[in-house]
């Protein structure tokens, strides 16, 4: 680790000492080839920022240095032990704990998180552009008189009787019939051919005589006008370049031609008249979508192949890989010269991604020495090339293309975005596998550790690409339906959930002091014109646009589009697999759960919290780097690498990049990442998703508290009682314990359910259940018991509730199951009480509103309104709160007497 005159912070000397000690350690020399990389990555995971930024921090304590030194020692101990974490810890710890223990895993997790964020950001932008395009096309349909009644149009869409639904059904039957004609098992092919002809006539009539006519025209403009306009513009640009001196001419690629508004204005309809404003806007938005798709596809192919080319073992196969790169682009890239439209042939509607990715994965694994698959690099390359060559047909082939504009565009964008995501995930995995080979010395002593790290990398990769998901489509759809329903039931449309989510912003006050937060706010205000926080967070995928944290945790990544025609590798034929009713139900449930009505409240609060945290994190690091020392450091670094000093604009750009990176890391650190690869093994798999639904927050919150306590302990042991880490612990106690207790003493209301410290609440509940009376037990778990009440499992919990409500299962007092779950017996309840419990089970917020909030509001009193608000927020006058309030009043009776006199005077006025 180099030192120069910019290293003005005292902690840099301590860091240098730790680095020197680690590098000279005999065990380091024995096990690690690249100590610099190991040290750098552990510094990044420990401090949440690059080493270059750590040097400018003003709050690094000696305890922090001790913590880093201990992590380096633990790394060497783990290598000797042969594993990172094993047993229960291996199942319960989140990947972030592994990332802090091993530098390679830390780099992988960081890359996975940023890749998924980029994917989510891009996907959200594309979806907005598509929605705008289809909205304009529907406006055109309305303008032509096809849809005049909004309610009627919505009703047709919901009942699947709209023209689009009919087009989908006809297309499904056409594909099914084509498969029958091509199948050797079909007996009466003549009948199938006649059926196909009739279906084609139905489709033709639908696109000629209904609102689908607008889609047909849109397709015509895309297929015929846009290639023509592109050629014209290309010729114009060539003519301009030819007029220049030969030395100043630049090469123009046809694919690089970008159409603009003046080009679209040239388009005419079949009568030679200018197109309508709606069609014009739709074409402009379509071009924006397809240009993004072209870029994403190119990036995806480059990421995948370049990742393989970077492998030392692949140098001999470079030419073969380059050929595959070309073929991949030919397969999926829209050809501007032949038409922008991504054609999907009906007799080749194969699940390209699901068939291609395993073969690409084999090639990634084949480049590593740690693959347990009997696939050589040569075999992997050959099967990948065979797959692409066998399925890539040019547009000139005599194939029947789908005219279903809506479905084709949606399917194409979904596949390309997922392809880009998985390619970058694969590249990250390949890079880390290569880094493991170069970082660690593979010997008899370290071999077992390396194998376990690689196994964890593969497991994390499986979670990132969906390999850990339920493979049976029907079962997967059923589970997604259950989990989506539970989100709607327990969290959707629930003001209390939104309020508790809002209280998570208190972690900001734990992480940063009030002074830091105010200074950051001042910095952001001063950069209002040059810093668009919403745009940055949107592009980085930090905001939820179509989901919510708990919904993403439950459902994971969205499943790839179902293909009703699949290519069977074994039979080498096409198989018709229609979308099942269960899959349709799961799709509807997912859409409803993520809608504005259901998830809007929780999503809005979560995005507000994230924006605020990003602003504080950004401003914090920007303030640290806004000094002459950083400018000098960047200028000297640029001079060493580029042979010149950096300009002021370049320094500012780098400063903002570091601030942005820290802002992103702050959001992930304080508001957590809810992707499958960020969850512990215990709740990552199919069973864990059901039993541990909504529990990822608890795992991460515990982890965050443990981190605060660990850092504070290190500083206290060093005698640094006034350090930043110590103050984080003080603020945590103040925010989550002292402040709620004080409010409770003043009001007699329990705010612990609103300002919730998840870990403390679970410990208190367990204590109340095992050491309290019957009323304490009932109040602690609301009749659910310590197991289900602690671990969650809302699906199981609700099934048991429904069972006991209707005597499907009847638990007596001596039942072991009842003792385990703590369930109260509903069999002797009145019908009204059972109805209330049923409504509560189906929707917590609806049940509370029906039986508590609404009666309180309609009472017509201020007390009733107050009780309604308290009930919705979960702020109740519990026994503990009442006792605390009573004791406080007795101790400070004089103050309360004065307040009562003031109230009396106020009422008299």
Main attributes of the structure:
single chain, 909 residues, mainly alpha, 3 domains, two-stranded antiparallel ribbon, 2 strands, 1% strand, disordered N terminus
3D architecture notes:
This protein has 909 residues and is mainly alpha-helical. The protein folds into 3 domains: 110-146 and 211-465, no CATH class; 477-562 and 583-693, no CATH class; 724-908, no CATH class. The chain contains 42 helices and 2 strands. It has a two-stranded antiparallel sheet. Strand 1 (565-568) and strand 2 form a beta hairpin. Helix 8 runs antiparallel to helix 18 (405-439), helix 10 (163-182) packs antiparallel against helix 11 (189-209) and helix 28 (628-642) crosses helix 29. The longest helix has 41 residues, at 103-143. It is globular. The termini are far apart.
Average predicted local confidence, pLDDT? 79
Strand content: under 5%
Helix-and-strand structural type? mainly alpha
Radius of gyration: 31 Å
Helix content: 55-70%
What is the strand tally?
A: 2
Strand order within the widest sheet?
1-2
Question: Terminal Cα separation, in Å?
Answer: 74 Å
Query: Mind summarizing the main beta sheet?
Result: 2 strands, antiparallel
Unreliably modeled segments: 2-7, 312-316, 391-398, 806-828
Number of domains in the coordinates? 3
Q: Helical region count? A: 42
What's the shape? globular
